[in-house]
Amino acid sequence: MAQYDNVVAVILGGGAGSRLFPLTQERSKPAVPLGGKYRLIDVPVSNCINSGISQIFVLTQYNSASLNRHISQTYRFSSFSTGFVEILAAEQRKDSPDWFQGTADAVRQILPHLRDWRIGKLLILSGDHLYRMNYEKFLNRHESTNADVTISVIPSRPDEAESFGLLKTDSIGKVLEFKEKPKGEALESMRVDTTKFGLTSEESERRPYLASMGIYVFDYQKLIELLAADESAVDFGGEIIPSAISKYNVQAHLFDGYWEDIGTIKAFYEANLDLASPLPKFNFFDASAPIYTRSRYLPPSKLHECDIDNSLVCEGCILNGIKVRNSVIGLRSRIDAGTLIEDSIVMGSDFFETIGAIKGDLESGKPHVGIGANCVIKRAILDKNVRIGKNVKLINKDRVENFDAADGSYYIRDGLIIVPKNGTIADGTEV
């Protein structure tokens, strides 16, 4: 594996994450839990490490405390290495009094922190995508075409293409045109013969568009020129990339693996449940390119008289006489007898409650951290440290699409019930 001392990766932490609310009520998008024990930020950081890129900055702005804590506790390189994963939070300075206004503006504002790193190329990534990519191939494509900018693209179907920024290229992959979320005739004009990128004729017919993944390699000096040329340009997709196409050698790099933008509650839910399927689209069991996360010294999970199928169960759980189907059970989950969980994500807990604390909870009429006895949980997302009482039914019996409980105890998004972090649902509640 090549080591890239002149390549620095910048992972964009994203905006307020309003489409992922309430999961982003107390955390930034990259800090949202994934697969029971990981966080979204672990995916791009692990891709970098597995590609020989160990100089990594993570840009944050909203609700960044838990992300900062996770990064500092997880990614510690040898003192004999130049590797690091460092948080760069939005800051106000005399020459830059505003918060990050967009993806390009975020990079523009952190340039003073990059000056001493002898950067040849800047790899710009998103912190809320689920995919496994070897950036070595991406960088090789950039170098072999003598590109100033290289954009990673994924072949896209007509029904999904209008949700992305689309690229039009010549037969050897040089980018000629970029359009942000085109529709109608503008969409038709962006069709590309994707057989030139290695797709079969059948696949090319099915996926005739090249969608930008929001992943870029920039020659560092050219990026500085682009950002300085128009200081009102704040976004890569809508402003910087179209400007670069007219001035520089901009190339496309095709990625034909699994890639999911975890930008909505529905996308988050479906991607997580797929991880528990027999043949998941994203495989955590790939030993050649592992996904790293914080090391936790937790005991093995303890299961007593349980019936569990097509599910993930993480460490430190105590599961007693429950039935689970097509679900993710996160770290330190405690679930009592007679409970049924189907098509749900239980994120678990950040801590173990002592036996004394659990007794105190029960004596005061407060549910313990976890899920009480004889509950039914279907198509739900239970965030960290929730307390679900006994005989609770979270099943969306009225088939509501979107709803906010007045007391903030639960929300419904896309028909999915969400109990926010540290939330409590009283005994006998039915939703």
Overview in brief:
The protein folds into two domains: 269 residues, Spore Coat Polysaccharide Biosynthesis Protein SpsA, Chain A (Alpha-Beta Complex); 124 residues, Hexapeptide repeat proteins (UDP N-Acetylglucosamine Acyltransferase, domain 1, 3 Solenoid). The chain has eleven helices and 31 strands. The strands form seven sheets. Strands 1, 4, 5, 6, 8, 9, 10, 11 and 12 form a nine-stranded mixed β-sheet that branches.
Task: Write up what this structure looks like.
By secondary structure, the protein is of the alpha/beta class. The chain folds into 2 domains: 7-275, Alpha-Beta Complex (Spore Coat Polysaccharide Biosynthesis Protein SpsA, Chain A), CATH 3.90.550; 302-425, UDP N-Acetylglucosamine Acyltransferase, domain 1 (3 Solenoid). Helix content is 22%, strand content 27%. The strands form 7 sheets. Strands 1, 4, 5, 6, 8, 9, 10, 11 and 12 form a 9-stranded mixed beta sheet that branches. The longest helix has 12 residues, at 236-247. It is globular and about 70 Å long. It starts with 6 loop residues before the first strand and ends in a 6-residue tail after the last strand. The mean pLDDT is 91.
Per CATH, which architecture of the largest domain?
Alpha-Beta Complex
Oligomer: single chain
- The total domain count is 2
The low-pLDDT segments are none
- Share of residues in helices: 10-25%
Amount of beta strand: 25-35%
Secondary-structure topology with pairs:
Layout: E1 7-12, E2 33-34, E3 38-39, H1 42-50, E4 55-60, H2 65-74, E5 84-89, H3 103-110, E6 121-126, E7 129-131, H4 135-144, E8 149-156, H5 158-161, E9 165-169, E10 175-180, H6 185-188, H7 201-206, E11 209-219, H8 220-229, H9 236-247, E12 250-254, E13 259-261, H10 265-275, E14 302-304, E15 307-309, E16 312-313, E17 318-320, E18 323-325, E19 328-329, E20 334-335, E21 340-342, E22 345-346, H11 355-363, E23 370-371, E24 376-378, E25 380-382, E26 387-388, E27 393-394, E28 403-404, E29 411-413, E30 416-419, E31 424-425
Parallel strand pairs: 1-4, 1-6, 4-5, 8-12, 14-17, 15-18, 16-19, 17-20, 18-21, 19-22, 21-24, 22-25, 23-26, 24-27, 25-30, 26-31
Antiparallel strand pairs: 2-3, 6-11, 7-13, 8-11, 9-10, 9-11, 28-29, 29-30
